[in-house]
């Protein structure tokens, strides 16, 4: 099967590129959107390339690169009544939700911002650049992946990691996040 490419969004407060680099590998659990679930379950394969995207950050954008290290498998957190990703409709015999594992590959010297992505030739059709595209897991064309890789590697080290937004903005985002039950990343 041909290698595929993805963009995976995470909020730095939940799991940052710093933590990912330190951990080396993580599971990508907690996805509770059926379209994203289908991608994780049916399309992600070991060796696929991943753009690690910091959302709700300053700046928002691609912070580094990862690789799928374990293809889609049932998200066992959905069966744990004590876990915040518990889903009573999901069970081991008929799992509703899926997850993948990804491993750290590379951190860009600075974030390739969403504004840069929108302004870069060849990325006009990239899903993340489209207005209203909020899906946390998105397919990326190989050409788009290569353009972002080149942009990221050409950065200087003056702004190494995405910064968290101001406290008031973070508090508002945290309330919104709790209401939406967005995924956090479990360290391995």
Structural description of this entry:
The protein is an alpha+beta fold. It has one domain (5-181): ph1033 like domains (ph1033 like fold). The chain has helices spanning 17-23, 34-42, 114-119, 142-153, 167-180, and strands spanning 5-10, 25-28, 49-54, 57-58, 61-74, 98-113, 137-140, 163-164, 186-187. The strands form two sheets. The chain has a seven-stranded mixed β-sheet with strand order 7-1-3-5-6-2-9. The chain has a two-stranded antiparallel sheet with strand order 4-8. It is globular. The two termini are 28 Å apart. The model has no long low-confidence stretch (mean pLDDT 88).
Continuous helix count:
5
Low-pLDDT runs of 5+ residues are none
Described by the principal axes of the CA atoms, the overall outline is globular
Assign the CATH architecture. Answer: Roll
Roughly what is the average pLDDT, rounded to an integer?
88
Give the neighbour order of strands across the main sheet: 7-1-3-5-6-2-9
What would you give as the CATH superfamily? Answer: ph1033 like domains
Q: Quick summary of this structure?
A:
It contains 5 helices and 9 strands. About 25% of the residues lie in helices and about 30% in strands.
Structure keywords:
5 helices, globular, 9 strands, two-stranded antiparallel sheet, alpha+beta, 188 residues, 7-stranded mixed β-sheet, single chain, ph1033 like fold
């Amino acid at each position: 099967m041909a290698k595929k490419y993805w963009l995976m969004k995470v909020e730095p407060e939940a799991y940052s590129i710093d933590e990912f680099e330190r951990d080396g590998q993580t599971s990508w659990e907690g996805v509770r959107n059926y379209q994203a679930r289908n991608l994780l379950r049916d399309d992600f394969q070991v060796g696929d390339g991943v753009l690690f995207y910091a959302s709700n950050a300053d700046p928002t954008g691609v912070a580094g690169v990862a690789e799928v290290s374990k293809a889609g498998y049932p998200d066992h957190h959905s069966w744990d009544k004590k876990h915040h990703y518990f889903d009573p409709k999901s069970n081991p015999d008929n799992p509703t939700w899926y997850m993948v594992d990804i491993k750290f590959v590379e951190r860009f010297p600075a974030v390739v911002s969403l504004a840069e992505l929108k302004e870069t030739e060849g990325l006009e059709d990239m899903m993340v650049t489209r207005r209203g595209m909020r899906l946390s897991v998105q397919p990326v064309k190989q050409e788009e992946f290569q353009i972002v890789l080149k942009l990221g590697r050409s950065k200087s080290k003056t702004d190494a990691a995405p910064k968290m937004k101001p406290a008031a903005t973070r508090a508002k985002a945290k309330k919104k996040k709790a209401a939406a039950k967005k995924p956090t990343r479990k360290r391995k």
